[in-house]
Amino acid sequence: MIVSPSLLSADFGNLQRDCEMLNESEADWMHVDVMDGLFVPNISFGAPVIKYIKKHSTKPLDVHLMITDPQRYISMFRDLGADILNVHYEACTHLHRTIEQIRQAGMRPAVTLCPHTPIELLEDIVADVDMVLLMSVNPGFGGQKFIPNTLNKAHRLADLIKRKQLNTIIEVDGGIDATTAPQAVEAGINALVAGSFVFGSADPKQTIAWLKRL
Ligand code: DX5
Ligand code: ZN
User: Fold this and answer.
1) What is the CB neighbour count within 10 angstroms for residue 149?
2) Most CB contacts within 10 A, which of 94, 120, 126, 175?
3) Is beta strand 30-35 parallel, antiparallel or unpaired with respect to 108-113?
4) Would you say the CB of residue 9 lies under 6 angstroms from ligand 1?
């Protein structure tokens, strides 16, 4: 299982310490949530913080853009050190072009779906991305409750990927905990984002190790 702890739940007063903890852990990636206050009703952090995360992290950055018109910022995120760039289906008018530009910039493109967006809309784009990120909460905040219909979407996406003989990664984000993580894995997910479950636990490294073994 790929594990991508979300730094949105880190202690921003001790960001270096939390990055170092993740470096020492079995986490595969570091999930970085960027919010613009427009696409989602919240603002997280921008370039200076991501630069700092990159400086102190030894793992690939799995950057989740919850912003309108993400194509305007592709080169900025490449320069900041993003390895995977997730853009929302709902935020891209010319998704195919945006995906191509992300790949040309040297990053791995991923498309993200809000809970209301059907899997079937990926029919003609899934072959062009390295990963699909399924939101299991409405994006914007950590610590929300997992939306059960995500499991149904994961099954349908796994079927679509199989039918097309692809090896696209399926990642899930939001409300992942000791109950929902095994359910997500059972439904065909290969990568788990976890924020409050990891950082709110008594021993984050052990929680990451537990997720890793699912
Ligand atoms: C929510 C973000 C998530 C968030 C998940 O919009 O995309 O990555 O950090 O937080 P938890 O795991 O606490 O639901
Ligand atoms: Zn996220």
Assistant:
1) 11
2) 175
3) unpaired
4) yes
User: Does the reported pTM lie above 0.85?
Assistant: yes
**Which residue's C-alpha comes closest to atom 4 of ligand 1?**
142
- The whole-number pLDDT of residue 161 equals 98
Cα separation of the two ends of the chain: 6
Q: Are 83 and 169 in contact (CB under 8 A)?
A: no
Residue with tokens 């998704």: 95
HSE toward the beta carbon, residue 100, CA cutoff 13 A: 4
Residues with catalytic roles = 33, 173
Closest listed ligand to the CA of 133: 2
What are 15-26's pLDDT values in tens digits?
A: 999 999 999 999
Mean pLDDT by 10 residues, the chain (214 residues): 98 98 98 98 98 98 98 98 98 98 98 98 98 99 98 98 98 98 98 98 98 98
Count CA atoms within 13 Å of residue 208 on its CB side. 20
Any atom of ligand 1 within 6 Å of the Cβ of 74: no
Burial class for 13, CB neighbours closer than 10 Å (0-12, 13-18, 19+): exposed
Q: Is the CB of 5 under 6 A from ligand 1?
A: no
List the beta bridge partners of residue 6.
31
